[in-house]
């Protein structure tokens, strides 16, 4: 298996894991305060990352890596989780698909600015078309939004795209699991302190779905998914592999159909097929 193919496989595994993030966050914020949820998931993942680094070592970051790691931490460890948690208090997880459709474009744009990548014009054509298909499909399912939630999701997409691009660039030298682990450890003092400050007065009223949501976003969304994702971006290219995010909403809907027995419509299948073609086209013109 060549490096590029490995990058796409790792990226796809990361996207599959991330597909459950927004529904899990939505379940968690039904009972947890959004700020506590953000801090708790980062703190729990940070403790796990600290254990990974202690057990397996890994390449230590240099002084020049501290600013990029801080950008990763602010973008994907604290910024995106907090902004999406706040947004999902105003909008539905289905409505958030509109903005997830813009994430590949944001990642590709920051990949050009920060990663030095130069995709061909055909890449941008397929990327924009894929984003439009995802956003159009989400809007067709119903608006379900509010102005505050929309603005928060837009900010979340921008900081996440920057965090993805910066982490993918840094992973070329440090490695995928090391980048997210060091970013989590860097965030740990702030996250742990904030979690203690916003700790709920009691846990008796916290339902099972909220606990499951917290566990999922802490272990999978915050750590395991990024191990595959950053490795994929480093191997296959930030802009190119980033287009796999176009499939994330449809993976999420498929999981909902399998686990919650929601109906999968013919329109969903048709749009998914078209998005797959857009991802394939973007890959062809990625370099």
Automatic annotation (TrEMBL):
Keywords: Membrane, Transmembrane, Transmembrane helix. Residues 8-130, 148-279 form the EamA domain. The chain crosses the membrane at residues 37-57, 69-91, 97-116, 123-140, 146-165, 177-199, 211-230, 237-261, 267-286. It is found in: Membrane. It is a multi-pass membrane protein. Its main location: membrane. Belongs to the EamA transporter family. This is DMT family transporter.
């Amino acid at each position: 298996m060549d490096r590029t193919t490995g990058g796409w496989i790792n990226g796809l595994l990361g996207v599959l894991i991330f597909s459950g993030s927004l529904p899990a966050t939505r379940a968690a914020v039904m009972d947890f305060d959004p700020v506590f949820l953000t801090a708790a998931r980062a703190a729990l993942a940070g403790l796990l990352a600290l254990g990974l680094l202690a057990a397996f070592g890994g390449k230590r970051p240099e002084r020049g890596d501290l600013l990029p790691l801080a950008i990763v931490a602010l973008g994907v460890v604290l910024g995106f989780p907090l902004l999406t948690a706040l947004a999902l208090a105003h909008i539905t997880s289905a409505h958030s698909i509109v903005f997830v459709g813009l994430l590949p474009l944001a990642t590709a744009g920051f990949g050009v600015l920060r990663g030095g990548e130069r995709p061909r014009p055909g890449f941008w054509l397929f990327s924009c078309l894929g984003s439009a298909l995802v956003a159009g499909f989400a809007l067709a399912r119903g608006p379900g939004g509010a102005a505050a939630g929309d603005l928060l999701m837009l900010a979340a997409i921008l900081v996440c795209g920057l965090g993805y691009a910066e982490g993918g660039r840094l992973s070329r030298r440090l490695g995928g699991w090391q980048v997210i682990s060091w970013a989590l450890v860097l965030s740990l003092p702030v996250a742990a302190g904030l979690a203690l400050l916003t700790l709920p007065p009691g846990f008796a009223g916290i339902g099972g779905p909220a606990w499951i949501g917290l566990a999922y976003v802490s272990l999978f969304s915050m750590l395991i998914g990024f191990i595959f994702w950053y490795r994929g971006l480093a191997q296959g290219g930030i802009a190119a592999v980033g287009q796999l995010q176009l499939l994330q909403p449809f993976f999420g809907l498929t999981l909902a159909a399998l686990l919650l027995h929601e109906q999968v419509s013919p329109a969903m299948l048709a749009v998914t097929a078209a998005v797959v073609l857009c991802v394939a086209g973007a890959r062809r013109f990625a370099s």
